Amino acid sequence: MPNMSLKKNPMPEQAPEVRNKNFDEVALGYTEEQAIDEAKRCLNCKNKPCVGGCPVHIHIPAFIAKVAEGEFEEAYKIITEASSLPAVCGRVCPQESQCEQRCVRGIKGEPVAIGRLERFVADRHNALAKKNAEKPIPNGHKVAVIGSGPSGLACAGELAKKGYEVTVFEALHLAGGVLVYGIPEFRLPKSIVAQEIEGLRALGVRIETNIVIGKTISIDELQTEYGYEAVFIGSGAGLPKFMGIDGENFRGVYSANEFLTRINLMKAYREDSATPIQRAKKVAVVGGGNVAMDAARCAKRFGAEVYVVYRRGIEELPARREEVEHAKEEGIIFKTLTNPKAILGDESRSVCGMTCVEMELGEPDASGRRRPIEKPDSEFTLDVDCVIMALGTSPNPLIKSTTEGLDTQSWGGIVADENGKTSREGVFAGGDAVTGAATVILAMGAGKTAAKAIDEYIMNK
Ligand code: FAD
Ligand code: SF4
Ligand code: SF4
To answer: Which ligand lies nearest the alpha carbon of 414?
Structure first.
């Protein structure tokens, strides 16, 4: 008998007034009983609309049916036919605009909690799995992967399974891309990312950290001196944008990327960390996406009063609903329909306020969203001692500027076809480096697609 409850089984989580003072994971995960009960809400629909909403087409009803039967390992096998990072995607995928958006149970009530079930299955597998994966038989071919974010990891994993000798070159000292330097511990524990990376190492993937391609080694050298037959660029979109207003170079102004990197990668939140970070009293985070929510929630955990300053209304916030709700519960103050004009500094050039104007929404612009317009005579000063800019990012121009014959878009994205093939022979690309800032699952899917194209390219050479 299906469970016809209109509501999802709630996710156990830390109470807001407790979690806004620590960096432990907010959502605690389903128990076996809760997972089975939730799985029974699935109607195993014949035309499977949910599968069409998943960018990598996980066979959702089949894995959920196995959860309902208590066959959790079978469920894991079904998920991993399509996804190589289920413990990550179950946590951070924007399910409400992907798989769960298409779920028929969402028409009269809440959709099946597909993401929570995926997380449950992956966590259970990881807790019980034997660690010694068998190394595939080498096929004698070498591929280089630039960047160890989800696109690079997925590409490396797929190729390693086929017997390729794969080396991942990572600029930072730790592998994982945004999963380790951007998304905070309280949304995605780093032990989960480390486990995925250990799995790749067990398959024989080599990960070389502290190597910046374009500075330490060029793509030319990878293809000639080092003998890599193909190169995959998964270097992401880590270059932050600023507004270009006065005061952005004052002490106490961060890009969200820098702020989050200090906290997540360099563990500034730990008592024993030597990473310098400003423990501000009042913080303004400018922007309204997931990155802004992450920065705001981190600043709150450092004990600050935190404002999210966004020029459109609360309805237009591009961040996931769940993240906005979590942020509100934790005490973040939303200053919507507000736009910064200048950052103010004291005599030591440290931030001592931010001048803002109030906005109202006019006619829709090219993006279809209503255009924010300044309200006359509405200027005011927000009393803050730290400003974090979370206005989006673009691909770093380093690889383009050091690689001949690699076409890029005017905004910096690498031009690649639907299989990840670029304009340069033997060079493939995917993830945020091609699309601009997007999602983990899209980057992972692009890495897998490119791995298939690389295999075909090398085998047909
Ligand atoms: P990245 O994850 O950016 O990895 C690229 C890697 O390449 C980095 O490790 C970088 O150091 C390395 N690199 C760059 N240049 C070089 C070079 N020249 N040589 C060697 N290495 C290099 N998506 C979601 O789906 N859900 C979320 O909740 C979510 N939250 C996010 C929160 C934050 C704070 C941020 C910043 C992003 C978030 N995203 C989220 C987006 C998602 O993380 C990205 O779309 C995804 O990580 C892109 O993967 P990627 O492999 O293309 O690049
Ligand atoms: Fe949904 Fe993401 Fe899982 Fe696909 S990978 S089923 S979109 S949670
Ligand atoms: Fe189950 Fe919803 Fe998919 Fe139907 S649409 S198969 S109810 S998850």
So the answer is: 1
Residue after which a domain boundary falls, among 128, 153, 175: 128
- At 50, the pLDDT band (50, 70, 90 cuts) reads very high
Average pLDDT, the chain: 94
Residues 345 and 277 both lie in one domain: yes
Q: Do residue 355 and residue 410 come from a single domain?
A: no
pLDDT in tens, 274-303: 888 888 999 999 999 999 999 999 999 999
| Residues of the domain holding 348 | 242-391
* pTM across the whole model: 0.93
- 189 in ligand 3 pocket by Cβ < 6 Å? no
Q: Are residues 272 and 254 in the same domain?
A: yes
The domain that contains 284 carries what CATH number?
3.50.50.60
- pLDDT above 70: residue 189: yes
Atom nearest to 432 CA in ligand 1: 52
The reply to whether 229 falls in a domain is yes
Q: Is 60 in the pocket of ligand 3 (CB under 6 A)?
A: yes
Taking 90 as the threshold, does the pLDDT of residue 452 lie above it? yes
Q: Are residues 158 and 98 in the same domain?
A: no
CA–CA distance, 238 with 105 (Å, rounded to integer)? 38
